[in-house]
TrEMBL record:
Residues 8-407 form the Enolpyruvate transferase domain. It comes from the Bacteria. Belongs to the EPSP synthase family. MurA subfamily. Its main location: cytoplasm. This is UDP-N-acetylglucosamine 1-carboxyvinyltransferase. Phosphoenolpyruvate binds at K22, N23. It comes from Steroidobacter denitrificans. One of its GO terms (biological process) is cell wall organization. The modification 2-(S-cysteinyl)pyruvic acid O-phosphothioketal is found at C117. It holds the Pfam family EPSP_synthase. It is found in: Cytoplasm. The gene is murA. Cell wall formation. Adds enolpyruvyl to UDP-N-acetylglucosamine. It catalyses: phosphoenolpyruvate + UDP-N-acetyl-alpha-D-glucosamine = UDP-N-acetyl-3-O-(1-carboxyvinyl)-alpha-D-glucosamine + phosphate.
Length: 419
């Protein structure tokens, strides 16, 4: 199993290019199942999760080709079976995103229940209840969601909680339903908007994406489209934090500043000078130690849970005491326990971590437990004195394209080796 070794202490300086967003590419690739003609998707990040989604489509008999620039061509008309098997779903929860499209387009879907993961229980009851409200027969049997339907019927769906993939699944299902579907309390994340724009390019009739009320007028068929995935705001945020924590000067290119308002606000509060332009963000710490910043995660446009661990890393070495509160997932603090091994002063009280910044961290072997926890340990390793070994980094390959190459480009002392 690979590990990352990071020598701490170098301020990161330079430019880095941001890849396409994992959390937009995955629903869009699942959404290709809805089309009756070939679909072409560009700016797809080269990530393990994307490979898994493509493998999943391939297992169903869908024709997928990828060129050397990660443009993915999908022809779903060759599909043989509407099944997402356990062995793939257990490696990637986002496999659940094929449920809505399969049911809407082919009238059947057998999708393994994702189950919990390192950050929480993560049920999918809202996805299932929404599909039932649209007329589907959905049974849970032998660890599988077995869904059957004739043509789905439009419905008014009031989501019990704001759920990103739940909104996406129901949005995709609604595109081919008979009549109008209204999704109330919809997720407003940019990735939901990107998916909606992709579906519209295929002929869907959708309004309100990006607000908490999405209206879909079902159409009988969706056709082909050519679409580019939006840039990854969480990857961009992670490299900006790398600049901030290391007291460096980092420019991210290909990023959307307007998708990072809450994150940039907190980086400014931490003492960073930030400038933004068309598809770039520049962060300069001018050699300063960051100030501690309080964080409270919540659905977009508030502070994203997928950036919580990275800001916890900044706070471990910041000037002052901070409170980091996680409101989305009940178990997203595993990185805090590993950071303590690097000398961080962290006390956990329920869903809040109280972090007292220390002047320095010291290297230790640490274990990555999930994707963003891994990123936060890399960030902590960038400033810990000595060489930090991060084990189980397969988590990071799910969501960060060529992370060691990109960090090296910024001057980091980082290498991958077999543990
Ligand atoms: C592939 C993808 O896009 N993943 C993102 C997506 O995950 P994902 O879509 O799985 O997360 P959700 O938005 O669904 O989760 C929000 C909360 O709702 C709860 N819930 C959700 C669905 C449901 O049927 N019942 C229920 O109770 C979850 O347990 C969680 O507490 O949004 C999360 C929240 O921004 C991000 O951290 C993930 O990176
Ligand atoms: C939690 C994440 O991903 P997933 O929903 O795929 O587990 C993430 O991207 O931080």
């Amino acid at each position: 199993m690979d590990k990352l070794q990071i020598g701490g202490g170098t301020p990161l300086v330079g430019e880095v290019r941001i890849s396409g967003a994992k959390n937009a590419a995955l629903p869009i690739l699942a959404g290709t199942l809805l089309a009756q003609d070939a679909v072409s998707v560009g700016n797809v990040p080269h990530l393990q999760d994307v490979t898994t989604m493509i493998e999943l489509l391939g297992r169903m008999g869908v024709s997928v080709t990828i060129d050397d620039r990660m443009r993915v061509e999908v022809d779903a008309t060759t599909i043989r079976e509407c099944v997402a098997p356990y062995e793939l779903v257990r490696t990637m929860r986002a496999s659940i995103l094929v449920l809505g499209p399969l049911l809407a387009r082919f009238g059947q879907a057998d999708v393994s229940l994702p189950g919990g993961c390192a950050i929480g229980a993560r049920p999918v009851n809202i996805h299932v209840d929404g599909l039932r409200a649209m007329g589907a027969d959905v049974q849970i049997e032998n660890g599988y969601i077995r869904a059957r339907a004739g043509r789905l019927k439009g419905a008014r769906l009031v989501l019990d909680m704001v759920t990103v993939t739940g909104t996406e699944n129901l949005l995709m299902a609604a595109t081919l339903a008979q009549g109008e579907t209204v999704i109330e309390n919809a997720a407003r994340e940019p990735e939901v908007v990107d998916l909606a724009e992709f579906l519209v390019a295929m002929g869907a009739r959708i309004s309100g994406a990006g607000t908490d009320r999405i209206v879909v007028e079902g159409v009988p068929r969706l056709g082909g489209a050519s679409y580019d995935v939006l840039p990854d705001r969480i990857e961009a945020g992670t490299y900006l934090v790398a600049g901030a924590i290391s007291r460096g000067h980092v420019r991210v290119r290909g990023a959307r500043p307007d998708h990072l308002d809450a994150v940039l606000l907190k980086l400014r509060e931490a003492g960073a000078h930030i400038e933004t332009g068309d598809r770039w963000i520049d962060l300069n710490m001018c050699g300063r130690r960051p100030d501690a910043v309080d964080i409270r995660t919540a659905p977009y446009p508030a502070f994203p849970t997928d950036m919580q661990a990275q800001f916890a890393a900044i706070n471990t070495v910041a000037q002052g005491v901070s409170a980091v509160t996680e409101t989305i997932f009940e178990n997203r603090f595993m990185h805090m326990l590993e950071m303590r091994r690097l000398g961080a002063d962290i006390r956990i009280e329920g869903s809040t971590a109280i972090i007292r910044g220390v002047p320095k961290l010291t290297a230790a072997p640490v274990m990555a437990t999930d994707l963003r926890a891994s990123a936060s340990l890399v960030l902590a390793g960038l400033v810990a004195e000595g060489t930090t070994d991060i084990h189980r980094i397969y988590h990071i390959d799910r969501g960060y394209e060529r992370i060691e190459e990109k960090l090296k480009q910024l001057g980091a002392d980082i290498r991958r080796s077999s543990a």
